Amino acid sequence: MTTPIAEDPAALIAEGVAALRRGQARDAESLFLQALRLDPHNPKALSNLGGVLRQRGAYRKAESAYRLACRLAPSAVRLYNLAAAVRDQGRLREAEIILGESLEIDPEYLPARALLGHWRIENWERGAPVENLDSAIGEFTRALELDPGCPDRIATLAMAHQEAGHWPEAIQLWDHCCALVPDSPEPYHRRGQCRLAQGDFAGWTDWSRQHDRPEIARCRRMVTDRPLWDGCHAPEATLLLYNNHGAGDAIQFVRYAARARERVGRLIVACDPALTRLLRLVEGVDAVVDYNRPIPPHDTQCSLMALPGVLGATLDDIPPAPYLRAPERLAEAWRERLEPILAGAAVRAGVCWRGDPRHRLDRRRSFPPGMLARLADVPGVSLVSLQQGHSDALDPRVHTLGPEYAAGDWLDTAAVLDRLDLVIACDTGIAHLAGTLGCPIWIALAQPPDWRWFLDRDDSPWYPAVRLFRQRRPGDWEGVFDRMAAVLRSVVRSLVIGYL
After folding, report:
1. pLDDT, tens digit (0-9, with 9 covering 90-100), for 131-156
2. Contacts of 295 (CB under 8 A, 6+ apart)
3. How buried is 168 (Cβ within 10 angstroms: 0-12 exposed, 13-18 middle, 19+ buried)?
4. How many CB atoms lie within 10 A of CB 421?
5. Average pLDDT per block of 10 residues along the chain, 500 residues long
6. Which CATH number applies to 328-499?
7. SS (H, E, C) the chain
8. Which CATH number fits domain 224-314: 2.60.40, 3.30.1380, 3.40.50, 1.10.287?
9. Gyration radius from the chain CA atoms
10. Domain boundaries 1-79, corresponding CATH code
């Protein structure tokens, strides 16, 4: 004997939705399928089935269910869901078109408006033209107009302005966010980045609120459960400094370790194993440990990037570079390997064109290796790749250092840099390492740049040997390398004249 619910599609759908709310996705899927056996063209059953299928990663089947539901009873919500399933399969442009159709049905459907803005941001991060970022700002502005006072809408618009380098607009929106959600660390942290980009070191106070962000707190607990250091003098205490960002961040901010050491009895640094040999050379550091191994006993802790805020640093008292030096014996060993490759060159330049691909903006900050041809065309210049773990096709005039370099750590890289005349890099760890060693370093910067390079200057208070080559418009690497090649020609010419 069948029960009444088993013969009623609407009741089956309602029971399926209730099962979803209880977290019983498999039961819900079975109920939606039962409803469709009774009524194969039920758009509600198809839409709900699509949601379950998408949730478990069956994107193609979800798309089929959503597509049939849209054909039977198109709506802004169903087209929104279809667009998401298409996007899940990597068909980005098609997904945007479908989302546009959703907004044609209901221009005020906020989820579609916001999602379109997020997709445009993602496109820009992947290297699409800056118009995607402008479009995202437009979508987020419209979403905020439809939902004024919503902290999430304000935050997404603020982030888009920040990504575009519209610092005053971003700060104003982050101010509003901080007022609406004073206990949320994210708006403060982002506002701190904007203030720092403008050279306002008071922004470190905001930036340091990152300690309260859930992902940062989880990372910290994986390393230590000791209390945060507040910068106080504790001559009997052992302070643990750890790196929860990239290698370049550790190299840049370990400069503050000596000042921290003046306030405590002992200082330990925990970092990635590839950094341990290098950071043991830093003044004020008593011990360096691989953070994948047991951490020695300590009383308090602080992340390396939080040190400027904790120590009350200002733009005028940045500890000067160089503050690292490669061991002479290791540097000499690498000189012997480099000599056959670069012999006879007026300028021996190391090049690095991309950073860690896991970085959210790596495609924006990295430049195409084809740009190096402009530098290789300069007579008297020899280029050697400092890139590790790449499979990029290179100009044959760019020399490589082989498997021994690829297997080395940051101290090996420092030894190589020590024997070069110039380093040319994107905004990544190699650039910071060259700066800390005092090597002449030219950094190719995307527009807008990361906050640490500040605005409208071609030098850097972090590294006196740095010269910044900024994009004059987003994506214009050709302009950057045309200017760089012109300067390089002048350098070679001056060296030749000086020799004569």
Report:
1. 888 889 999 999 999 999 899 999 99
2. 223, 224, 240, 268, 270, 289
3. exposed
4. 17
5. 68 94 94 94 96 95 97 96 95 93 94 90 79 88 91 93 93 96 92 95 88 64 81 96 91 97 97 95 95 91 93 94 93 91 90 88 90 96 90 84 88 95 97 97 95 94 97 94 97 67
6. 3.40.50.2000
7. CCCHHHHCHHHHHHHHHHHHHCCCHHHHHHHHHHHHHHCCCCHHHHHHHHHHHHHCCCHHHHHHHHHHHHHHCCCHHHHHHHHHHHHHCCCHHHHHHHHHHHHHHCCCCHHHHHHHHHHHHHHHHCCCCCHHHHHHHHHHHHHHHHCCCCHHHHHHHHHHHHHCCCHHHHHHHHHHHHHHCCCCHHHHHHHHHHHHHCCCCCHHHHHHHHHHCHHHHHHHHHHCCCCECCCCCEEEEEEEEECCCCHHHHHHHHHHHHHHHCCEEEEEEEECHHHHHHHCCCCCCCEEEECCCCCCCCCEEEEHHHHHHHCCCCHHHCCCCCCCCCCHHHHHHHHHHHHHHHCCCCEEEEEECCCCCCCCCHHHHCCCHHHHHHHHCCCCEEEEECCCCCCCCCCCCEECCHHHHHCCCHHHHHHHHCCCCEEEEECCHHHHHHHHHCCCEEEEECCCCCHHHCCCCCCCCCCCCEEEEECCCCCCHHHHHHHHHHHHHHHHHHHHHHHC
8. 3.40.50
9. 27
10. 1.25.40.10
Q: Are strands 466-470 and 441-445 parallel, antiparallel or unpaired?
A: parallel
Looking at the chain, the domain(s) classified CATH 3.40.50.2000 span 328-499
